[in-house]
Amino acid sequence: MPKLLAKLNKLSITNMIEIATLPAKVNTSAEISNIEQLKIDHDFYDCEIDKSTGKFKEIHFDRLKLTNKLKSLGFFRYDLPDGAYQYIYISDNKLKIVQPYYIRDVFEDYIINMEPLQHEFIIEETPTFITVTSKMILSKMYKSIKTYFSPEYLERLRPEKKIIIQEDTESTKYIFFQNSFVEISKSGIISKSYSQLDNYIFEGSMLRREFLYTTTKGDFEKFIEKVTGKDTDRKHSLMSLIGYMMHGYFETKLIMLLLTDVNKDGTGEANGGTGKSLIGKAIGKMINATKDDSRYVELDGKIFDPANSKKYMNANIDTRLIHINDALKYFPVDRLYNDITEGITVHKHHAAPYVVPTKMIMSTNQTLKIDGTSSKRRIIFFELHNYYSDKLDPEMDFGKRFFESGWTVDDWNEFDSFMIRCVSDYLQSGIIKTAEINYSNRALEEHTDIDFVLWFEWLLKDREVLKMSEINGEYAMSKKNLFKEFITKYSDFDNPKFKQKKFTAWVRSFCEKKHINIIERRCTDDEFVFLK
Q1: 205 neighbors 248 (Cβ within 8 angstroms)
Q2: N or C: which terminus of the chain carries fewer CB neighbours within 10 A?
Q3: What does the pLDDT look like over 347-367, one tens digit per residue?
């Protein structure tokens, strides 16, 4: 038998095939199983022989079978909302966006690692066997690569069922790490393997670190305790807000988080360096897998122009959180109302605009003019204690920069675990509101004038305005007389630029910030009416 096989080997075509006219041999069950697997591996082509000679003639890739083979290897077309599409590779419920060359490379590797398969043909009632090797298949692939891997052909890699991306739900948040994913809900925090994932995720959404839950208090949690004045209620309030911003669910009432300073001295001076930017950056570290990701986007508030149609040009279809950092005092926050509640509109050069659902954070060293129910319905502010300043920052305090190379595996696990507990707090209790500390006083002083604030406080007390309104139900004061009285006492305001209209606006703002009930009554001499 070996001599016969050696003789037959000499008949091989360019040493790539073997021709034999031998009876089929009896195989064990293990060999049969192996042969069946080989047939599955080789099931994307047909082998043609010359029936007159019994010699190998050609390999023909079957387009339908090749399509199914590429799908079995994990390649599919993924349709985007705008009508375009991408090619994806699926493995263990994870999707990776790939280019056509990657599909060819993986298929080539698949062929190289294939074991030879013996094909059986019957010629004039005599069995003939052709052994097809990986070199033979590769030769055919190279010869017809433009035919079988053309864009028109690869477009046929449509999935048989819709590819559903795993998104956060109203009651559940998912965070994806390299070794597992974490499912957070009211029921608790559970770490799971990717084989347990119900749907798919993009590989790019996986954070580039492994995770092991810990209850150990890390540096970032200690930082949060310091900027919340070591007040447990304020800590959990801020944790719930962080959790809300991390939660990628948008079919709810959306609000913007405004981070600002307590600034207890009451001077109205802007105090930077309290840690507002670091909080935004921390949330970004739980959303963006790499520095090039755009799920979390930070914009410079000093140059952000709400009137510019391309203000969100750095955002993309996958953006889920916008942070406008270091906004200036007179930022027209009312221009963002629609963006806060309905999503941002992204305008890019030479492309049609599209709307993206996002949540928003704004941080500022100063106070913004947030008056009226429209603002209060859309914005929730949180004041950070002035533990940190230009004389002491977190790096000095902890001896290392957060989130950079100095952080150890333990630092990351402590940070990730704390941020996960923030989400858990939010899902358990919603946004936990806390009492204002000093914002209204700062806003009054920054958007009116300290002399006006002190004068009006004195006036209400000296004339017992609020006491009288409690007794009689109302107390009326002439707008015109009040204005004259103020500019008489403070002559610097007796100028053409400071008019009755501005003074009236200051009175309204004062009463709103101090929670004083007031109406404006039109009569011979228009009045402010203070109510019980």
Answers
A1: no
A2: N
A3: 988 788 889 999 999 999 888
